[in-house]
Amino acid sequence: MLKQMFDLTGRVALITGASRGFGLEFAKLFAEAGALVILNGRHVETLQTAADVVRRHGLVDIAAFDVADIPAGVSAIAAIEKTHGSLDILVNNAGMNIRKPLADYKLEDWRQVIEVDLTAAFALAQAAGLGMAKRGYGRIINIGSVMSVWGRAGIPAYAAAKHGILGMTKAFAAELGASGVTCNAIAPGYFETELNAELMKNADFVKYVTDRTPLRRWGKPDELAGAALFLASPAAGYVNGHLLTVDGGMTTTM
Question: Which residues, including other chains, have CB under 8 Å from residue 117's CB and lie 6 or more apart?
């Protein structure tokens, strides 16, 4: 019974930004749970290296495209459906951030972050979600952030995009739920990832986050994978439109 609740055997999962960090951790666990995992990234060489890692855990394929290239992403989803018969799980994980004081923040900075972190996620979820609805089953998992509910100086576009991810998740959940498709989001706190590498060089900020987090540490990338597996699995069959916060308790405290 326990194994069946988290079994992804026969499912096809596309994970964006899967050559490293959260995406690679998701891929390893999904493959171990029985899914055929399709890794997305911009560079074939890095995807092949990641695929070699995931292959030790189960079935894997790659789909190289830039999520900001909307036609390429939509075409990739159509190709996956044609090749594998379905796309059952989509994890919108790819993302970026530009950190600058507000006075230095350019409109182009804003557009770039919104395009990658929000618009691309919408386009992929739309393309995948409509196919899932026709087949009567699907799981869409959007990676948000504690910035889906908070704000912080220096990251206006990122905070806006991650707030948008939460709103988009709820809208998709409302529209696709009757067709057997769930849409949920995960809000990571501060994790030791490549995206946060610059922040982690700032000893004062590292201490601030550590002191602000009840668990008194930053998260490890593999500690987010279980949340993603839960939302992708039969165990979360009645979970829809939810933001699952994984932040060591940071957003529960003042």
Answer: 95, 96, 97, 157, 158, 161, 162, 165
Over residues 210-219, the pLDDT tens digits come to 999 999 999 9
Catalytic residues: 158
Separation of alpha carbons 246 and 77, rounded Å:
28
Query: 142 in helix, strand or coil?
Result: strand
**60-64 vs 89-92, strand pairing mode:** unpaired
pTM for the full predicted model: 0.95
3-state secondary structure of 85: coil
Say if residues 115 and 136 touch (Cβ distance below 8 Å): no
Higher pLDDT, 31 or 253: 31
Amino acid (one-letter) located at 126 = Q
Find out whether 52 and 74 touch, Cβ atoms under 8 Å: no
Q: What local confidence, expressed as pLDDT, does residue 198 receive?
A: 82
